[in-house]
Write a structure and sequence with these properties.
Low-confidence stretches of chain B: 1-5, 7-13, 165-174
Shape of chain B: elongated
Radius of gyration of chain A: 34 Å
Number of helices of chain B: 5
Mean pLDDT of chain B: 79
Number of strands of chain A: 4
Distance between the termini of chain B: 26 Å
Number of domains of chain B: 1
Largest sheet of chain B: 2 strands, antiparallel
Structural class of chain B: mainly alpha
Number of helices of chain A: 32
Largest sheet of chain A: 2 strands, antiparallel
Strand order of the largest sheet of chain A: 1-4
Shape of chain A: elongated
Strand content of chain B: 5-15%
Radius of gyration of chain B: 20 Å
Order of helices and strands of chain B: HHHEEHH
Distance between the termini of chain A: 81 Å
Oligomer: heterodimer
Strand content of chain A: under 5%
Helix content of chain A: over 70%
Low-confidence stretches of chain A: 767-789
Helix content of chain B: 55-70%
Strand order of the largest sheet of chain B: 1-2
């Protein structure tokens, strides 16, 4: 299919709009406060509208495509592709994004601190996430993937207000980027095995063999960590320190779905590659059970939802990774359902937290009576979460049971797992409702007023969406089929509210009854939990790894960084002699013919240099040694001049002069006489010095022994007049090889800043005030103060 | 650097270098101060000459930067760390930044204007009695290089001077 130029500019404009509006919203924040988020919300809202407009075409099997090649010779391109799965995720990302930003207007209204950054990063994240689901190149996908990680880090960390924020942000960053490296490696292997880095082409012609298997494991590691699967999950509950809009958007609806998205994207192609199914199904079921079980133990409503999210992500992983059509259909419906109900519930908790000042269920009472509207909204979402008709959650769960009632390897075990997981889901859904809205005798009611309508509205829209979509099963079926049609049709299942008296209906009833029973018996469950001996936690293991890495790095540093400058020099010089020097000697060898000198003047200068060098070694007074050493440098400049290279000579003289003066500045504060090291060390140094000298001599001889004029030299002379003048040496620096110069001066600037910073920092640590440019400023201010007195 | 108002009115005002009198009297050298005072403007002129003349004669941005840097070294030697601060209009970080900006901006402008990184042009100007002058656009690039070299020299000088507690520092800490 040819790239569609029209939609290319539109998508590019939409992605760019996120960037521009993020900056605009951030700029507006100091003036209008959180209302700047309204401006930011325009970007995801416009993208949502575009996706809705494109939906009929895409669902009819005509994906939108656009290519942007930015380095043709390197084969680097950013192709974007909108197919059924991208559409599904895109609608979630932009739809929930718009509502969460609108909600943020109210949530952040009385917050002054760090709002500029939060606003900008939230909008940026929406753009990065949209880019992630549209990217059709694995490297572009990876870049967008890590952009979302960075946004998540910044939003969790929240200016690093306290240790909890910092450690949570760091945990999320370490786990997801650490696994992100595995993902990158996996994607590269995958692209290499498939011969293309186009996602759609990899899926169309999937690679097989050992390399594909390795790639599968690596990609899965990255995807599972991003989607908080066992054993990577602890970062997600920790991330709940972030503001609620962030939790609702990044850590429930959008970012954590990135891993699920990638699994769903690759499953049609790679589900048959061996380690895929065992890993995906086992990890998914384990995550679902662990998340559900932990959710039942939480008293913080937000953490309860976080563990619920982990459980649901496990469920989604099973469904979208299983590699069958019915499971994919169920997964796509559950994905929509989860984004809607979990975001709703997070927003509800945010409202309760904001209005009542707590989200601990032991301190909440009477919320249901004082804010009945809020309870209704939460109730709608909970219907969907527990999988009751007529909600989209029900459609998804029925299809999920059906998918594993169908015969298949290991389907029995998986079915048992997801039924048990669904029982836990029903139980923690009830726990949430009970915890948030029930009356507790003896507890002071904290909610003083009914939350304003504009605050509840975004949550209400999302909550209602779950039911409305449930009442329109054909719409959901069309959307979900957009993804499920990637699989061959074996069982033509369709999403519907009524499938007759079938096994899934029976299983649904079982989960509801068992879940309710589990909730009613919560005291006994808690007692049983207390009786279970503590097991090693994934959190502890991760901390252990982090500590181990730090300790190993510390040990390595202590054993290699001995703190002796001559020692480092010795190592560096020895490495130069043995490495490049050895290669030069072995591969090139000694030049066969050479002339001693062209003019007698050169010989004279040579003698002067030798005398000076011998002098440097023998002189004990530092200042004299340095002066004699510079005589060597000036002599070399003379040699350049004799060779007809005035540019080189000029530079050599200048550099030598600067070096000499700097030396003088330093040496003034050192002992006048050189202290001699022990004999053995002196011997070692002498040997290394002689080796370096021999290497330099050898290199000079071989390089200058080349007598064929290089081809580029002729080109330089031919081009020089057009470039401004006859001085070819200088033109090489500023024109012909200007890119080299650009790199060199950049390195120079960085090195200079780095060295200066290091020296100034250490001197400040020692308590010496820095002698830099800020000093007179301070002194002047103090002088003014004195004058005023 | 205007710090004249900070000194008692009775102190002698005539100074060769703005901040040279803020170092120990024992460390001062009149000859060096006079030399620095007289030579520094000329050194800067030489630096500018080297910068401009690069396309036709030995010189160029690197050499120009080094020469300008040498002028600063001279001021530092003659007048101490405070004099170095007084002699530089901008902090070294800013010089490095401006230099990098010029160099990278020149590279980028080439992409925008001629579609090629670092593309340059030469303008011929009839400058009246000066005659025919050719101005290569690479002069901007050279200026950037020169500024970076000056910034580097300044960084080196200021970090080397950092260990010497001056008279005023001693006053402040006591």
């Amino acid at each position: 299919m040819p790239p569609d130029r029209g939609s290319l500019t539109l998508v590019a404009a939409l992605l760019l709009a996120h960037l521009v509006l993020a900056a605009a919203a951030a700029a507006l924040t100091p003036r209008v406060g959180s209302r700047a988020l309204l401006v930011g919300a325009l970007a995801p809202a416009a993208s949502f509208a575009w996706l809705v407009a494109a939906a009929p075409d895409v669902l009819a099997g005509r994906p939108r495509r656009s290519d942007w090649t930015w380095a043709e010779t390197l084969d680097l391109e950013v192709p974007l592709r909108l197919d059924g799965l991208s559409l599904l995720l895109g609608l979630v990302v932009t739809g929930v994004g718009t509502l969460v930003l609108l909600y943020g207007v109210h949530y952040f209204a009385d917050r002054r601190h760090g709002m500029v950054r939060t606003t900008a990063v939230l909008v940026l994240f929406a753009g990065a996430m949209l880019a992630l689901v549209l990217a059709d190149n694995v490297l572009a996908l990876y870049v967008a993937w890590e952009l979302t990680t960075v946004c998540s880090f910044l939003l969790i960390g929240d200016e690093g207000r306290d240790g909890e924020h910092r450690s949570a942000a760091l945990r999320a960053l370490l786990v997801t980027t650490g696994a992100g490296f595995a993902l990158l490696l996996g994607l590269l292997l995958l692209g290499d095995a498939a011969g293309t880095y186009r996602l759609s082409e990899i899926v169309a012609a999937p690679p097989t063999g050992a390399q594909a298997a390795t790639a599968v494991v690596l990609v899965l590691v990255g995807a599972l960590a991003k989607s908080a699967q066992v054993p990577f999950h602890p970062w997600l509950p920790a991330a709940m320190v972030a503001p609620t809009p962030v939790s609702a958007y990044l850590h429930a609806a959008a970012m954590v779905k990135a891993g699920i998205y990638l699994v769903a994207r690759l499953a049609p192609a790679l589900a048959e590659v061996l380690p895929w199914r065992p890993i995906v199904l086992a990890v998914g079921v384990a995550t679902m059970l662990l998340g559900g079980w932990r959710a039942l133990a939480q008293t913080d409503l937000k953490r309860l939802l976080a563990y619920g999210t982990i459980a649901q992500l496990g469920f989604l992983l099973v469904l979208l990774g299983a590699g069958t059509r019915t499971a994919a259909l169920a997964g796509a419906a559950m994905l929509l359902a989860h984004a809607a109900f979990k975001a709703t519930l997070f927003l509800v908790v945010g409202i309760i937290d904001h209005e009542a000042g707590t989200r601990d269920l032991r301190e909440l009472t009477g919320v249901g009576r004082r804010a009945p509207g809020l309870a209704v909204v939460a109730g709608l979402a909970c219907l969907s979460m527990a999988g009751l008709p007529p909600t989209i959650g029900y459609l998804g769960k029925e299809a999920a049971f059906e998918a594993f009632v169908e015969p298949g390897t290991g389907h029995g075990w998986v079915l048992a797992g997801i039924v048990a997981g669904s029982v836990l889901t029903v139980a923690y859904t009830l726990r949430f409702l009970w915890g948030a809205f029930a009356d507790r005798p003896g507890v002071e009611p904290r909610l003083e007023r009914r939350p304003p309508l504009s605050f509840v509205a975004p949550a209400a829209v999302l909550g209602a969406a779950g039911v409305v979509l449930g009442l329109l099963p054909s719409v959901v079926d069309a959307l979900a089929s957009g993804h499920a049609d990637a699989y061959p049709v074996e069982h033509s299942y369709h999403l519907a509210l009524w499938h007759g008296f079938s096994p899934p209906l029976f299983l649904s009833l079982v989960t509801l009854v068992a879940g309710a029973a589990l909730h009613l018996a919560r005291d006994r469950v808690d007692a049983a939990r207390g009786a279970v001996p503590p097991v090693p936690s994934a959190e502890g293991a991760q901390d252990g790894v982090a500590r181990g890495v730090l300790a190993a790095a510390g040990g390595l540093t202590r054993s290699t960084q001995v703190g002796s400058l001559p020692g480092y020099l010795l190592v560096v010089l020895l490495a130069v002699c043995l490495g490049p020097g050895g290669v030069l000697l072995v591969q090139v060898g000694l030049p066969e013919r050479y002339r001693a000198w062209d003019t007698p003047a050169q010989a004279l200068i040579g003698v002067a240099v030798v005398i000076a060098v011998v002098g440097v070694v023998r002189i004990h007074r530092r200042i004299v040694a340095v002066l004699v050493l510079s005589a060597v440098g000036y002599s070399v400049a003379l040699l350049f001049l004799l060779h007809g290279a005035p540019d080189l000579a000029l530079t050599q003289v200048l550099v030598e002069t600067v070096t000499l003066l700097v030396f003088v500045l330093v040496i003034r504060r050192m002992p006048a006489e050189v202290r001699h090291p022990p004999e053995v060390l002196r011997g070692v140094r002498a040997v290394v010095a002689l080796m370096v000298g021999a290497l330099a001599t050898l290199a000079t001889l071989t390089i200058s022994a080349r007598r064929v004029p290089s081809r580029s030299t002729e080109g330089y002379f031919a081009e020089a007049p057009a470039e401004g003048g006859p001085n070819v040496t200088n033109l090489i620096i500023s024109e012909f090889r200007a890119l080299d110069t650009l790199g060199e001066v950049t390195v120079l600037a960085i090195a200079s800043t780095g060295v200066a910073s290091l020296v100034l920092v250490t001197s400040r640590l020692r308590g010496t005030p820095r002698g830099g440019h800020d000093r007179p400023g301070r002194a002047e201010r103090e002088a003014e103060k004195e004058d005023a007195r | 650097m205007t710090d004249a108002h900070r000194r008692p009115a009775a102190a002698p005002r005539a100074r060769l270098l703005p901040a040279a009198d803020r170092q120990d009297a024992g460390e001062r050298s009149l000859q060096l101060e006079v030399l620095a005072r007289l030579a520094h403007p000329s050194i800067l002129v030489v630096a500018v000459y080297l910068l401009v003349v690069g396309t036709h004669h030995p010189g160029g941005g690197f050499a120009a930067g080094l020469v300008a840097g040498l002028g600063l070294v001279l001021r530092r030697l003659a007048g101490g760390p405070k004099e170095l601060t007084a002699a530089t209009p901008l902090p070294p970080g800013l010089l490095l930044g401006i230099g990098l900006l010029l160099v990278a901006g020149y590279a980028g402008t080439g992409v925008l204007v001629a579609g090629e990184l670092l593309a340059g042009a030469v303008w011929s100007v009839d400058a009246g009695f000066l005659g025919h002058v050719e101005i290569p656009s690479a002069l901007v690039f050279e200026l950037g290089v020169a500024l970076i070299v000056v910034g580097l020299t300044l960084d080196v000088l200021r970090t080397l001077g950092v260990d010497e507690p001056s008279e005023e520092d001693a006053e402040e800490t006591t």
